[in-house]
Amino acid sequence: MPDRRGPQRTDPASTIRPVIQYEGRLKTLDNEKIMLTLHDSRTLLINRSGKTRFYKESREIKSAALNIGDIVSVEATLDQQGMLYALRVSFETALSGGEPYDTSPDSEASTSVSSSSTTARYTLRTGPRPAEPGQPESAEASPHGSVDSSAEAAQGPDSLIDQAAAVSFSFSETLPNFLCQESMTRFTTNPYVVGWKFMDVVSAEVIYEDGQESYRDVKLNEMPTNKKLEELSGSWSTGEFATTLRSLFHPATSATFHLVGEATMQNTRAKIYNFDVEQANSRWNVQSGSQSVIPAYQGSVWIAEESGRVLRIEIQAWNLPADFPM
C-alpha cells in the first residue's frame, strides 16, 4: 500500500558512517552548530542533529551547561560533502574564554588523530599545466616561461623585493572599483592515479570595491546555483586580484625571500624568489567541508626586473594536519 505519510525527511546524521573523535576548545555553541578550535590551528564547524547528546562525567546534560572556552571531546560522523555531524559531546576540562589555548605538542587538548610532521621544502613547479577538458596533456607546455636554472642562488632579499613591495601597495591603493568575470577550472588527482582528471568549472562575478573583494552570480558548469562561493564543495579560492598580493609583502606577514633563478615571461625579464611564511604570521584560510585551517605556506613569486611589478605568485600550504581532507 502507498505510504500515506508522504516523503519522510532523513536526518543527515542517521546514515551509518565511521565515527571520528576530536578534542578541542569550545569556540561557539548554538542550536545548530558547534565550533571547536583544535591544537593544530584547525577550526571545526560541526552540525547538531536530533542525535546530538551532551555529557559531563558520564551524565547527560543540557548544552547550556557548557561554557565557551571549555575543552570538550566530540564524536561525529562525516557526510559525502565533508560536513561533520555531532553525535556525542563530552565535557573534559574547564578553560576560561580569555585563557589562551595550549597549542604545544604536549598539550592534553589535542585531536585524536596525530598531525603531520613533514617539513618538506617547497619545490618550484616547472612541469605542465593540466590539459584543458577533452585535450591531451602536453609534457612541453610550461606556465612559467623559460627558466634560467644557472641563475639559481640562495640569498636574502634585495632591493627588488623592496621595490616590489612599494609597487604592490601602490597598485592596491590606486586600484579602481571594478567588476570582472572569474573562471576556475578544477582538476583532481590522488596518490594512486598519474595525472589530473577534469572535475568542473566554477565561474563568478568578482566585485572589487573600496579595497574589498566579494563574489556573486556563482555558476557550476555554466549552471546557476543558489550557493555562495564559500559554500561550494571541493577547492576554491578568493583574493586573487589584490588581497594575496598585498598580504605577501605586508610587514606583519614577515615573509622570507630567497632568489632562486630568472625567467622570461611575456617578453619581460623577471627574477624568481622562493618565500616562506610561518603559521603564526599567516592570514590564509584553507577550508574543506566542516574543517578550516590557517596554515604556514611557501611559494614563489616572479618579479619584473625593471618595473618591480609582480607577474606571478604560486602558493602552497605545508604541514597541514594529517587528517585534513586536502
What are the key terms here?
326 residues, mainly beta, five-stranded antiparallel β-sheet, 2 helices, 18 strands, elongated
Explain the overall architecture.
By secondary structure, the protein is mainly beta. The chain contains two helices and 18 strands.
Q: What do the pLDDT scores average to?
A: 77
Question: What Rg do the Cα atoms give?
Answer: 23 Å
Instruction: Return the string of H and E elements.
Output: EEEEEEEEHEEEEHEEEEEE
Report the β-strand fraction as a percent range.
35-45%
Helix amount = under 10%
Shape: elongated
Main sheet: strand order: 1-2-3-7-6
Largest sheet: 5 strands, mixed, barrel
Topology:
Layout: E1 19-29, E2 33-37, E3 42-47, E4 53-56, E5 59-61, E6 71-78, E7 84-93, E8 146-148, H1 159-174, E9 178-188, E10 197-209, E11 212-220, E12 223-224, H2 243-249, E13 256-265, E14 268-277, E15 286-288, E16 291-293, E17 296-304, E18 310-318
Parallel strand pairs: 3-7, 4-7
Antiparallel strand pairs: 1-2, 1-6, 2-3, 3-16, 4-5, 6-7, 8-13, 9-10, 10-11, 11-12, 13-14, 14-17, 15-16, 17-18
Helix pairs in contact: 1-2
Précis, in short:
With 326 residues, the chain is mainly beta.
